[in-house]
Amino acid sequence: MSNITFTMIKPAAVADGHTGAILAMISDGGFKIKALRMLQLSQAEAGAFYAVHRERPFYTELVESMSSGPIVAAILEKEDAVQAYRDYIGATNPAEAREDSIRKLYGKSIGDNAVHGSDSDENAIIESNFFFNTMDRF
Ligand code: CMP
User: Fold this and answer.
1) Which DSSP string corresponds to 12-45?
2) What CATH class is the domain 4-136?
3) Of the residues 22, 58, 60, 61, which should be mutated to test ligand 1's pocket, given the most ligand atoms within 8 Å of the CB?
4) Nearest protein CA to atom 2 of ligand 1, as residue
5) Predicted local distance difference test score (pLDDT) of residue 19
6) Helical H runs in the chain?
7) What is the mean pLDDT of the chain?
8) How confident is the model at residue 111 (pLDDT cuts 50, 70, 90)?
9) Are 27 and 106 in contact (CB under 8 A)?
């Protein structure tokens, strides 16, 4: 169990103007922002980030949407951060997500589900390293 997780606010949620509200919900949930960046992924970078899903039928669509506009990437700290954040954002499919969860409030579809959250401590480290240098972390 680690106290770090990684999140991205996805392009559709950023484009729809939900960045501030989602960051506020993250803070209100007791997650401390340790690093923060706004950037646009290339298709190659989005493909590399989601390489674990390469064989899945939704991979091309996922890469397309994740590189379609700017995202906001962050490292979050809380006790048992990976599980706590997954609980907090709700189910992958916004239609099935808990009421008042980030994905229920701001997700539009399973692909445009507002935010990504790491699924393991190991991936939280890999994903944080994908976006942030040591000097970008606080
Ligand atoms: P995320 O937490 O970013 O991790 C992988 C992403 O793949 C997931 O959120 C969804 O946005 C996307 N995804 C998972 N299953 C499907 C699906 N059946 N159709 C489209 N996208 C999916």
Assistant:
1) HHHHTT-HHHHHHHHHHTTPEEEEEEEE---HHH
2) alpha beta
3) 58
4) 116
5) 98
6) 11-15, 19-28, 43-49, 59-66, 81-89, 102-106, 121-131
7) 97
8) very high
9) no
